[in-house]
Every structure is written in structure tokens, then in C-alpha cells.
Design a protein that fits this description.
The protein has about 900 residues and is of the alpha+beta class. The protein contains 39 helices and 18 strands.
Length: about 900
């Protein structure tokens, strides 16, 4: 902003002493009035000057009297001017201008005096409401002598424009204000220096006559420009103009109350507008512009609200330190307000100072809760409490740890931690505090993200290996770091495993050597029953093969002793992700990806373990395919005999009480008992070998399952159709359906008190003849059974022969029984037959055909009959049976194995002898 530079001739018009000048300047008109007369008695100037002073005092009659006295003494321009001003004050514009015209006549051609009188006349005309005419007169004066007193005329014209502009501003005529401002600023040359107006007598004269103040004039012009720019929507330019104005204004003007009041009001208005502009820019993600607008607003008014907004914007730009500084300013300016603390929380959270961020957030919540304004308190509802978030996190931690080992090694510190210590470790991390700090509002309360972060932190890796010598136990690592243990081979293995897990990004690692308290029977029980589940839920299982040299070729893994151990079977089947490492801890075959996705490695393991590739990749625990799973474990070995059973707990998804010292037969018997009772699968009874002391139907050793299971002879579809056709001529539909229904109603096999309750198809022996003693010390008997073809029985037991003519001794008996297998109800071809009969979709599982059950749609009677006859065909096929012996009216015991007795049904009607037998 610039100011008018006045280059005005200094012809004296008022002749007054210093006392009069000072009194007049300070508007102490009583003193000025006395001083004028005392200095110049009977002088026309004195009377003219006193007339002007009295005019300033609005004493118009007295002023007219003095002005006339001055003219009477000596006509002069100042006398005529004084009289004209006094008449103008009485709103007598016509006489006032006439007086000035007379003054022009009396000037006798004095050009300067005439122009003075004409300039005053223009002012009088303007002051009496003829504004355009007054401005036109000053314009004419400027044109007639552009080089002499034109600056003075321009100054007068500037006053006129300013006056009109003030009126327009009061009337809110913004366009007119802008137009008048342009007129003021276009009146002459400008500079940044304010002239010393008191040294210019011509200007000084006008100031005293009309009460003008050129300092105030420029203040008004500059103020006017600021307002005009603001009204035109150019707020930033208005602020620049304001700063320039403050640099140029006289300190006395700045100290004036009206100046101060306007400055306060204008700054506030500009600050509000700049704040709104910042808001608009922020909504458009133009953060730099928003910060500029907020900064400009704060330079005018350091508002806590604007500081808070700028803090939020800087946070969006990632300027965390600047955002925090703004938030602190907002708090300092208005501590009771919650919003400054909200912005402080955001800045600290962005700077990852989560502890202090949570503290700031809690302070904000407290401010919201206790704010006297109910509308502010209402905002509290949208925020989540850190304590509530923490409870959700704790639940997520509990759920995450539910399927993880009871103890884990923290890979960073090498320290062994129980679940309580694992929770504390997480609570000490930035993950925990970041979650609490980030879930500030109910909208941001993301349960899934909490679960994801918690789950990611508690991911763990499991070690699978062979024990070799003295492995470090729990007592060796308790309250120590595994990295600080005395170095020996087995310790080095544990350290290398933990370092590998850490390098792979896992916080936790587990090794069976030191992570289980084997002296605590309760913990040992829980661990062994849960171990499969731990491997199942592990993110990675690391298999260390100490007997596989580095850079081995394919085939080395298959030769590893790791494949011979019982415990390693579940450690192979359970994990979804597994990596094999050679003795130098390099990945097997240099493959660092999931080895369950490696065709080469899986096929190698298939050959080594007998488990199909699909079984290795997609294994599911449970009591399905029992015989196959027992076969997988049949050749594996353990150090502790009971581990033969305990190592299979997870594979079959059963629970056993762990009791080392109970002996292998009992442990295996309890395992098989749980499997048969839970699944109803009788294929576990299919074995050759020594019976268990636990129950005669169970083997003494798992190795008996190395032999393949008995597979009934295959009947093709064409053969099945032929056999069913034959049966239809000899077996009534009612008989076939009755058999089907009776078998369907049989209870599942179950164990109680070491006794097996087994539903069977029973064939009593009618004759037993000893045949030979074989080379292995067993005896071969030739037996006849009611309803069966004659069979051969090989057994180590000795029996007394009997026949119809020579009955067995009383209380003694032998039965050939076929354990009832409910799987036979799901005859393979039934499903397609019923679909063809009804032309409708069928269930995916085996179809139950009990007539009491409702099928949708219900099969026709022909379809039911056919299904029942197909079952009869299956029952007539060659099958494996058990030889049961009862002595002296006691309970039945098994004395011969399935594969030694392959029988063929001879009489169909004998199939209806179905009983449930208790076997000891």
C-alpha cells in the first residue's frame, strides 16, 4: 500500500502564532479563540481567524459577525472564506457561494487567491450535498493549472471521494466503494512516505478550516482498500494490504480507539474467512493450501480452533512434529476444550508415540464427559474407550493363544514365556498400544483388524527333530535366554532354530525339549493331547534333519531316521507349512518355499512313509480311514513304549489320559478302544498276531497293522446285477428288507471295563477237527459252521475236537463271527439305482434305506428291495471273521485272527442270526 505524496505550494493563508496553532491543532478552540484576538487586535486576519475558530465551535452567528468585521476592516480571501464557511454551517449554501464570488472580484486578479476561493467554493458546494458538482469544480481547477496547485486540489478531491466511499460503505454499496477507491488511488503519484503536513501551510489551513486530518485520510483510504478487497473475496490480498497499512500508519492513528476497534474486527473477519478457505482446501485434499490459509488466519487471530484445524491438516500431511506443536498451542489457548487433545492424540499417534497418544485421548474423553455443554457431551458417544478396546484385544489374545502351546520361546530375547508372560510381552509392544490408539471412534473400532494384528504377533513356528543325547530341558532354560546357554550340540540346535524363526519374522518358537514341564503331570497330559493341534495351527513347522548332509540330492530325506519315529508322523501330517533343513540348517534341495507344495519332496516322502501325496498335503485328523492310519504308524518306533499310543492321539483326534509306566499294551488298547468307540469302525479289529492283555480283540503291538487290511472280493456291476436277479427268485422282498432293517438298527461297537460289546453276524461251529501242526508251531483246524462253507483255522491255542456225534464239553463253545460294519449299508450302486428309479438328485453320502426314515423323494419299493438284495450279495462274499471261544460259561475271547478265517456264506437264511456279543 502507498500514500499520497503532496507537492503543494506553501502560500500562507492563516497568520497565527504558535499558541493559536497548537490550540487549534489540538481542537482546544476556547484557547485558540482567545489567543487569536490577543495577538492581533483590530486586525482583519485576527477576526477572520476567530470566525473560523467559532465556526469549528458551531457558533455560526458569532462566526458570521467576526467574518463581516474582517471584511469591513480589509477585504481579503481569508475573510470571505470565513464568512462563506459560517453561512454554509447555517445551510445557506447560496449566500455562501455568493460571498466567495464577491471575494473573487475583490482579489484584483490575484490568481492564487482566486483559486483558493474557488477551491473552497467547491468544498462548500460538496459539503452542502452537491457532491458531483464539487468534484467537478476541483477537476476543473486541476485542468487549468496542472503544474501548480493541482496537488492541493487532488488532496481535496481525495477527501471528497473518501467521504462518498464512507457513505457507500454504510449503505453496503460494495461496487460503488470499489469505484470510489479507484478514484482516490488514481489522483496522483504515490510513495510510501507520509509528508509532514504541519510544515505545509496550505494544507494546514484546510485542516484547521474544515477539521480535516490527512493522517486520518490515508488511514481511511487504506482501511477502505482493505475492506474493498475483503468484500471482493480477495481475503489474502486484503490481509497483505492490512500488513502494509500497519507499516505506514502513524502511531497516533494506531492508538486511536476507532482504529483499534476496526483492526480487531477486521482481523477477526479475515481470520474466519481464511479459516473457511482452509476448510475448503482441506476437503479437496489440498493440504498445503489449507495450511497456508490457516497460517494466514493464525497470524491475524491465534485461535485454538484454527490451531486444531492446522494440526489436523499437518497430520494428514505426515508432519507430526508440526501437528503436535499446533495441538499444544490449541490446548494452551483453550485447555477446557477437548479438541486440542484430540489433535494431540492424532499427532502423537502418527509419530508412533502411542503411550502419550493414549494419554491425550483419555484426556479428551474426560473433557467431553465433563463439558458443561450437553451438545459437546453428546460427542462422547462416538468415541470408543481405550479400556473397552483393551478388553476386546484381551479376548482376541485369549482366542489366539487357545490353540498355541502353553509355553513358547520369544525369539528376540530367547526367553521362555508362559501365556501370562506372552500377554505381557504383547502389551509392552507398539502393536498393542497402536491398536488402542488407532481405534478411537466407534466407526474405526475394527474387530477384524484387532484379530489380525494379534494373530500376526502370536504366529509361532514349531520344531520337529529327533532327540539326540541330552537335550536342554525346561529347567535348563527357565529364567534364562536360550542364546546364553552353555554351548553344546543340542543347545546349538535349539539356538539355531530360534534364530531361524526370528530371521523368518516369527516372534515365537516351540521345541518339545524345553517348552513342556514333564515333571508336571497335568501339563504333560494337556500338552500331549494338544500337540497335534499345536502343529496344526502353527504358521511354520521346521524339520531339522541332523543326518541329511548339506547340498544333498533328492532321496536323502527319505533315508533320514526322522521318518522312522512315531512322534514325527503327526509332525509331518499336521502342519500346513513345513520346511526341511539339512544338518547345516540350509533348506533341503535349496528350496525355501513351503515343502508341502513341492512335488519332488512330497513324492519322496510318499515313498518313505507310505502316506499318499494327497494324504501328506490334505490330511485331516479324525477316526475315518482308521486301518490306513494305523498302517502308517505300524513300523515307527519310540523311546518310551507308551508313546506308540500317545503319538497318535492327535492323528485320530481322541483324548487319552497320559500315564507313563502303564505299559505299551494298555496304552495302545486304550487308544484303539477310544477309536472304535468313537467311530464304530471295526477295521481296527482286522489283524494277525498276539492279542493284547487289555482286550483279546485288540493287538499287543501296533506292528500287526503293517499287513494290508482284508479287502472283500470285488463284484462288478454286471455280476452284481446277475446275483441280485438270482436272489429275487429265492428271497422275498420282505426278508431282504427285514434283514436290512435289523442290521440298520444294530448299535455301534463300544468298550466298557476292558470289554468290547460288538454287534456280529454269528455262525456257531458245529465241528472242529485238528488237521496239522505247521512249521511255526501253530495248529491248523478244520471247522464246520452252521451256514458257512467249511473253513481252516490257524491258531496257537489248543482245542479239543468235537462234532455232532461227539459234542463239546458243557459250558464251552466256539463261534465264528463277522463284526458288523455299518459301512456296508452304503452299497456303492444303490445311489445311482435310486436316482435312475426316481430321476431326481440324491444325497452325496450313503443313502439310509430304513423304511421308517423319510427320504426326499422317497425311493420306490423296487429300489428299496434292490438295495437290500445288493446288501445280501455283499454279506455272502468271502469275508474275514473272528473265532471266539467261551470256556465254562465265561465270556468270549478271541483266539484266532481274521486272515486265518476266510469264510463263504452258504445259506442265506443264516445271515439273520445277528447278535451283540461281549468280548473280554
Amino acid at each position: 500500500m502507498v500514500k499520497l505524496s503532496l507537492d503543494i505550494p506553501t502560500q500562507p493563508l492563516l497568520r497565527i502564532n504558535a499558541t493559536t496553532h497548537d490550540a487549534w491543532e489540538s481542537e482546544d478552540f476556547d484557547v485558540a479563540e482567545d489567543a487569536v484576538i490577543k495577538a492581533h487586535v483590530n486586525d482583519h486576519n485576527a477576526f477572520a481567524n476567530r470566525a473560523l475558530v467559532r465556526a469549528r465551535k458551531l457558533q455560526w452567528d458569532a462566526a458570521i459577525e467576526d467574518a463581516q468585521m474582517s471584511i469591513n476592516i480589509l477585504p481579503s480571501p481569508i475573510g470571505y472564506i470565513a464568512l462563506s464557511v459560517a453561512l454554509s454551517g447555517q445551510r445557506n449554501c447560496e449566500d455562501a457561494t455568493r460571498v466567495l464570488d464577491l471575494g473573487v472580484i475583490d482579489c484584483n486578479g490575484d490568481v492564487d487567491a482566486i483559486r483558493w476561493l474557488l477551491l473552497v467554493k467547491a468544498i462548500i458546494v460538496f459539503n452542502n450535498g452537491q457532491c458531483e458538482e464539487g468534484i467537478a469544480r476541483t477537476t476543473d481547477l486541476i485542468k487549468t493549472r496542472p503544474g501548480n496547485d493541482a496537488p492541493l486540489c487532488r488532496s481535496v478531491q481525495a477527501y471528497m471521494y473518501v467521504h462518498l466511499g464512507m457513505v457507500a460503505m454504510n449503505d453496503r454499496e460494495d461496487a460503488k466503494v470499489v469505484q470510489l477507491l479507484a478514484c482516490v488511488l488514481g489522483l496522483g503519484s504515490f510513495s510510501t512516505k507520509i509528508p509532514e503536513l504541519s510544515t505545509i501551510s496550505t494544507i494546514d489551513c484546510l485542516c484547521k478550516i474544515f477539521g480535516w486530518n490527512f493522517d486520518t485520510l490515508w488511514y481511511i483510504v487504506l482501511k477502505w482498500k482493505c475492506e474493498a478487497l475483503y468484500a471482493a473475496g480477495q481475503t489474502n490480498e486484503a490481509v497483505e494490504s492490512l500488513h502494509a497499512m500497519m507499516d505506514q500508519l502513524d502511531e497516533d492513528i494506531k492508538a486511536m480507539k476507532r482504529t483499534k476497534d476496526w483492526l480487531v474486527d477486521f482481523k477477526l473477519r479475515c481470520a474466519w474467512t481464511l479459516g473457511d478457505l482452509g476448510d475448503e482446501a482441506r476437503l479437496l485434499n489440498n493440504y498445503s493450501e489449507a495450511v497456508n490459509q490457516y497460517s494466514a488466519a493464525l497470524a491475524l487471530d491465534p485461535s485454538h480452533a484454527i490451531f486444531a484445524k492446522r494440526s489436523e491438516t499437518r497430520a494428514a500431511m505426515g508432519l507430526w512434529e508440526d501437528a503436535l506443536e499446533d495441538a499444544e498451542h490449541a490446548i494452551m489457548l483453550n485447555d477446557p476444550s477437548p479438541w486440542g487433545y484430540g489433535r494431540k492424540h492424532a499427532a502423537l499417534h502418527g509419530a508412533r508415540d502411542y503411550g502419550n497418544a493414549i494419554e491425550a485421548f483419555n484426556t479428551m474423553l474426560s473433557k467431553l464427559e465433563h463439558d458443561p455443554n450437553p451438545r459437546i457431551r453428546h460427542f462422547r458417544r462416538q468415541y470408543a474407550s481405550p479400556s473397552d478396546i483393551e478388553r476386546v484385544i484381551q479376548r482376541a489374545i485369549d482366542e489366539s493363544l487357545q490353540n498355541s502351546p502353553l509355553r513358547l520361546i520369544e525369539t528376540t530375547t530367547g526367553r521362555l514365556c508362559d501365556r501370562t508372560e506372552q500377554k505381557k510381552a504383547f502389551e509392552a509392544t507398539s502393536y498393542f498400544k497402536e491398536l488402542i490408539s488407532s481405534m478411537t471412534t466407534n466407526v474405526e473400532f475394527d474387530h477384524n483388524r484387532i484379530i489380525e494384528v494379534v494373530k500376526r504377533y502370536f504366529l509361532y513356528t514349531m520344531l520337529s527333530h529327533r532327540w539326540e543325547g541330552e537335550e536342554p530341558l525346561l529347567r535348563d532354560v527357565r529364567n534364562k535366554s536360550v542364546y546364553d546357554l552353555e554351548l553344546m550340540y543340542t543347545v546349538s540346535k535349539l539356538q539355531s532354530f530360534c534364530q531361524l524363526a526370528r530371521n523368518l519374522g516369527y516372534n515365537w518358537a516351540w521345541s518339545d525339549t524345553c517348552c513342556i514341564d514333564k515333571t508336571n503331570s497335568v501339563e504333560l497330559q494337556k500338552s500331549l493331547n494338544s500337540m497335534f493341534n499345536w502343529y496344526w495351527h502353527s504358521s511354520l513347522t521346521v524339520v531339522y534333519l541332523s543326518d541329511v548332509p548339506p547340498s544333498s540330492k533328492p532321496g536323502a530325506l527319505a533315508k533320514s531316521a526322522w521318518n522312522t519315529r512315531c512322534w514325527t508322523l503327526q509332525e509331518l501330517l499336521a502342519p500346513n507349512v513345513i520346511l526341511f533343513f539339512a544338518q547345516d540348517w540350509t533348506p533341503y534341495l535349496n528350496d525355501s518355499l513351503n515343502h508341502k507344495e513341492s512335488t519332488v519332496i512330497m513324492e519322496e516322502l510318499e515313498d518313505a512313509t507310505g502316506v499318499s501325496v494327497q494324504g501328506l498335503i490334505g490330511f485331516r485328523p479324525g477316526t475315518t480311514e482308521v486301518r490306513q492310519k494305523l498302517h502308517w504308524a505300524s513300523a515307527r518306533i519310540t523311546t518310551e513304549p507308551e508313546d506308540v499310543a500317545y503319538s497318535l492321539i492327535g492323528i485320530f483326534d481322541v483324548t487319552l489320559i497320559v500315564n507313563y509306566g502303564e505299559k505299551k499294551q494298555k496304552a495302545l488298547g486304550r487308544l484303539l478302544e477310544a477309536i472304535v468307540s468313537r467311530s464304530g469302525d471295526v477295521t481296527a479289529l482286522d489283524w494277525i498276531g498276539q492279542p493284547s492283555e487289555y482286550n483279546s480283540c485288540l493287538p499287543a503291538d501296533i506292528s500287526v497293522y503293517s499287513a494290508p487290511a482284508c479287502v472283500p472280493s470285488f463284484v462288478s456291476r454286471a455280476e452284481m446285477e446277475t446275483l441280485v436277479s438270482r436272489l429275487q427268485s429265492s428271497i422275498t422282498a420282505e426278508m431282504a428288507l427285514a434283514l436290512y432293517d435289523k442290521l440298520d438298527r444294530q448299535p455301534p461297537p463300544r468298550f466298557a471295563n476292558h470289554r468290547l460289546t460288538l454287534p456280529c453276524i454269528v455262525f456257531p461251529l458245529t465241528a472242529l477237527t485238528k488237521w496239522i501242526d505247521d512249521q511255526f508251531g501253530s495248529k491248523v483246524y478244520y471247522a464246520a459252521a452252521d451256514g458257512l462253507e467249511d473253513v481252516e483255522i490257524t491258531t496257537a491255542d489248543t482245542f479239543s475236537p468235537f462234532s455232532p456225534s461227539r459234542p463239546a464239553r458243557p459250558g464251552w463253545g466256539m463261534l465264528l463271527v463277522r463284526p458288523w460294519n455299518r459301512a456296508l449299508l452304503g452299497v456303492a450302486d444303490v445311489e445311482s439305482d435310486i436316482r435312475n428309479a426316481e430321476d431326481s438328485p440324491s444325497p452325496s453320502n450313503a443313502i439310509p434305506l430304513r423304511r421308517s426314515e423319510s427320504l426326499q423323494p422317497t425311493p420306490t419299493f423296487d429300489a428299496l428291495q434292490k438295495a437290500a438284495l445288493m446288501l445280501v450279495v455283499r454279506l455272502q462274499q468271502r469275508f474275514a471273521a473272528l473265532l471266539l471261544v467261551r470256556e465254562r460259561g465265561g465270556e468270549y475271547k478271541r483266539v484266532a485272527s481274521d486272515r486265518d478265517i476266510i469264510a463263504q456264506v452258504r445259506e442265506v437264511n443264516k445271515l439273520t442270526d445277528i447278535r451283540t456279543i461281549e468280548i473280554l
